[in-house]
Amino acid sequence: MRKLIESTFVSLDGVIESPEKWTAPFFDTENKQHAYTELAQYDTFLLGRATYEKFAASWPKIHGDPYFDRINALPKLVASTTLRDVTWNATLIQGDVAAELWRLKRQPGKNIIKYGTGHLDRTLIQHGLIDELHFAIFPTVVGSGRRLFEGVDTSGLRLELVRTKTFANGVVWITYRPTV
């Protein structure tokens, strides 16, 4: 069965909002190579509406970079109740998002990646759809912005540490697996 992997950038003070504003000084060759290598295990990119709109506005214009070329080429699934049309190699999930993701996870293929933590996580966590959480913890304090799992009920979420990777610049990649 395919896995649904959620990957999120987090500051030391738990901020996830606008990572493009505070991760750039840390996204060096080592971190970029790690992110690119990770993409090899995915054949589908899941996005909520807000992340989709933000990424689709700029990422398709970036060419000639292996990381962005791979992201741009991946088929995308967008979970939204308000969007009617999508671009950027994307398909809108129609109807019950949880049922559709369970169906997709049972199909053959590589894993499904989701970037960021947001409103879609309410459904994903409630229905036990996330198989692993990858957090890249950046050694910076942002101060303000939306926090990890803000507005999401995580009271039943229990995690076990699967692995860690520490980068020379202080970024720590942590992988957790939800436990039953």
Number of helices: 5
Strand content: 25-35%
CATH class: Alpha Beta
What is the residue-mean pLDDT, rounded to a whole number? Answer: 95
Full CATH superfamily name:
Dihydrofolate Reductase, subunit A
First-to-last CA distance:
17 Å
Main sheet summary: 8 strands, mixed
Oligomer: single chain
Note the run of SSEs as H and E: EHEHHEEHEHEEE
**CATH fold-level topology:** Dihydrofolate Reductase, subunit A
Structural summary, described in words:
This protein is α/β, with parallel strands linked by helices and 180 residues long. The protein has one domain (4-179): Dihydrofolate Reductase, subunit A (3-Layer(aba) Sandwich). The chain has 5 helices and 8 strands, in the order E-H-E-H-H-E-E-H-E-H-E-E-E. The chain has helices at 29-39, 49-58, 66-73, 97-105, 120-126, and strands at residues 4-11, 42-48, 76-79, 90-92, 111-115, 132-138, 158-166, 172-179. Strands 4-3-2-5-1-6-8-7 form an 8-stranded mixed β-sheet. The protein is globular and about 45 Å long.
Brief overview:
This protein is an alpha/beta fold. Helices cover 25% and strands 28% of the residues.
Name its key features.
5 helices; Dihydrofolate Reductase, subunit A; 8 strands; alpha/beta; 28% strand; 180 residues
